[in-house]
Amino acid sequence: MLPEIWTMPGTGWQLKGYGLMMTVGFLSGVYLAMRRALRVKCDPDMVLNCSLIALIGGVVGSRVFYVVHYWDEQFAQRADLLFALIDITRGGLEFIGGLLTATILIVLYVWKKGCSVRVYVDILAVSTMWSLGVARTGCFLNGCCFGGVCIDPQGHRASALAVEFPFGSPAAVRQWENRQITLPAELIVDGFKPSTTSSLGHSFPLPREVLSMSDEKRDRPRLEYENARRTLEQAKQMGADANEIKALADDVDSSKQRLESHRLGSALGALDLARAYPSREDPARSSTVGELRELAAEYPARWVHPTQLYSSAAAILLSVFLGRVFHRRKRHGVIFGLMLLLYPVMRFIIESIRADNPLDSFGLTVSQAIAVGMFVVGCVYLFVLYRYFPLRSPRAVPYVPDVEPA
Fold first, then answer.
1. Would you call 208 helix, strand, or coil by DSSP?
2. Range scoring the smallest mean pLDDT among 32-36, 141-145, 379-383
3. Domains of the chain: which residue ranges?
4. Lowest mean pLDDT among 71-75, 109-113, 204-208
């Protein structure tokens, strides 16, 4: 698990593992799709345009699907609702929602351009599975989309593939909520509501973000507020004019608001509650952040299935299979149909191993329910394709690049 790959010195800006792998997956998928288009004499610019549509529509569709799915649990009581709706830095995307949205938009775009829908969805289907496979490694780095507990009756790891996520990871939080693990009092916060939770007054594990936060990032807003107050007091003592006093007072108010927002948004108030406990090394003083970090390291999650990596491997294998069939196919549109058949099967099986989604759709997870629907649609699509459509699309004409004038 590596949510942050790199932090830019002096700025605090962090390169997120989840976002990095999404970007790598998207760019590599576009590159492979454009190469595939050239090999079958299709327009690579059309593929690029479809990819950009898929990027925008896919992200929006994935986020909307996630927000609707987890509205009551994560969004209904958020004070910073607007920011929460658009914040995808920690994940919060449902691939199936993005796939459905992107597919609809791409079909409409290609059809409006007068090109062969069947040919282009075949090209893009192979890269879609490739991009998904790469992006799922970002889920592993982020710790989301985790699997169920994988231990034997003695509490030992039951599979060589099982992984152990650290304290504060989504898997550890869920296991604590399900009473599968216990935590010491110092690592449990009670009576504080950060903006990242939706339950006022409920207990929750100390957020991992506040433990991993650097001293500079944690203390910067407080130091700015204290400096602004000192500057204002010095100006008053030196008899500064009213306009300068007012400007400095406004600066104090602004820095105070930033401090309060920082404490609420980053759950620093929760860290203050944790530090109020007596130190285990010296009960005469309060706990330090370093001591809390060392204590947290002793309480990881239980071993779980790395379903993120299962998903990644399955999607890449499916992409390779579709790519092999693509160059041997005789009927346009069959690759897209195979994706509609095989991806839901893969997703249904992996969902049965995952432990982060509730069984809230007729005894299935919402992704499993949609996967069943996709499989049925795939069956109908292939039946119609083979029964009523010709082998080759009438709109599938060779792409001829524009010749630039000499």
1. helix
2. 141-145
3. 4-147+306-388
4. 71-75
